């Protein structure tokens, strides 16, 4: 999408200090967006911001806890003041607290629900007012193939399934304002989260990746840039008739 400097749109990407979020921030910058790189630790965002700045883009590091209502309000207001009203939001922040059900604590359940679902809710509610005012907006939520169920991830699977219902509901509510809302459900992507999952199940990451790739029709593991490319499509002007969808970026069919 070609956006001149005077009409540059602003995107917020949460969980953007590393992994899928960082790749998405870089891709949206390449697409012409000013990008707020938001994560819990503002300092951790600075390397992504520096990379974007070095490439001629414009970015801002923002530290915020997406589960904190006031912190979210302050963060979105800061982005609007420093970069311009955000009309693209990528709800990517997430955590793992994996365990089998009988070992899972209430705190493990609550923290995963809070970051994934409460965080997406608070960020979307804060950002949508800017989109409504602009008459144009894009929200992209990160789900997962784990939404279909995954051993040791009752909390994560439930949260990611909830993200899909949240996405479809916002698509219904916000469509009349020129806002589309979609979700991306990545399969096996080479990220720190999957390194942690391999450790949890007692495997080296190399063996864990090989076992995953053996089941993927395209014969390779996914990269954060693969997910970023799907986000790039959803936020385009000419994707305006695509809303309420869940796109599985998993290297093959996934129901």
Give a structural overview:
Strands 3-2-1-4-5-6-7 form a seven-stranded parallel β-sheet, sandwiched between helices. The longest helix is centred in the middle third of the chain and has 29 residues. Helix 4 runs parallel beside helix 5. With 255 residues, it is an alpha/beta fold. It contains eight helices and seven strands.
Fold blueprint:
Blueprint: E1 10-14, H1 19-30, E2 34-39, H2 42-54, E3 59-63, H3 69-82, E4 86-91, H4 106-134, E5 137-142, H5 154-174, E6 179-186, H6 192-200, H7 205-213, H8 224-234, E7 246-249
Parallel strand pairs: 1-2, 1-4, 2-3, 4-5, 5-6, 6-7
List keywords for this structure.
disordered N terminus; 255 residues; 7 strands; 46% helix; Rossmann fold; 7-stranded parallel sheet; globular; alpha/beta
- CA-based shape: globular
Sheet bearing the most strands, described?
A: 7 strands, parallel
Series of secondary-structure elements, N-terminal to C-terminal: EHEHEHEHEHEHHHE
CATH fold-type name: Rossmann fold
**Unreliable runs, pLDDT <50, ≥5 residues?**
1-6
H/I helix tally: 8
Number of strands: 7
Number of domains: 1
Q: What is the CATH C level class, in words?
A: Alpha Beta
Radius of gyration computed on alpha carbons: 17 Å
Strand arrangement, major sheet: 3-2-1-4-5-6-7
CATH homology superfamily: NAD(P)-binding Rossmann-like Domain
Indicate the structural class: alpha/beta
User: CATH architecture, please?
Assistant: 3-Layer(aba) Sandwich
**Helix content percent band:** 40-55%
β-strand amount: 15-25%
Distance separating the two termini: 31 Å
- What's the average pLDDT? 95
């Amino acid at each position: 999408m070609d956006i001149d400097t005077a009409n540059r749109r602003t995107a917020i990407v949460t969980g953007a200090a590393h992994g899928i979020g960082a790749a998405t921030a870089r891709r949206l910058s390449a697409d012409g967006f000013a990008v707020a790189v938001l994560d819990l630790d503002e300092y951790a965002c600075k390397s992504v911001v520096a990379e974007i700045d070095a490439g001629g883009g414009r970015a801002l590091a923002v530290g915020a806890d997406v589960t904190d209502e006031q912190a979210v309000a302050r963060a979105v207001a800061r982005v609007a003041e420093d970069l311009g009203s955000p009309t693209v939001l990528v709800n990517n922040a997430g955590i793992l607290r994996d365990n089998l059900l009988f070992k899972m604590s209430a705190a493990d359940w609550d923290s995963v629900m809070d970051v994934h679902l409460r965080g997406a809710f608070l960020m979307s509610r804060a950002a949508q007012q800017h989109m409504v005012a602009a008459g144009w907006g894009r929200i992209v939520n990160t789900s997962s193939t784990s939404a279909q169920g995954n051993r040791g991830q009752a909390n994560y699977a439930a949260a990611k399934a909830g993200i899909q219902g949240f996405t479809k509901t916002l698509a219904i509510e916000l469509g009349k304002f020129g806002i589309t809302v979609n979700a991306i459900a990545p399969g096996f992507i080479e990220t720190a989260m999957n390194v942690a999952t391999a450790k949890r199940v007692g495997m080296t990451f190399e063996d864990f990746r090989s076992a995953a790739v053996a089941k993927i029709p395209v014969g390779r593991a996914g990269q954060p840039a693969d997910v970023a490319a799907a986000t790039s499509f959803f936020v385009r002007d000419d994707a305006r008739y695509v809303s309420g969808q869940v796109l599985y970026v998993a290297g093959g069919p996934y129901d």
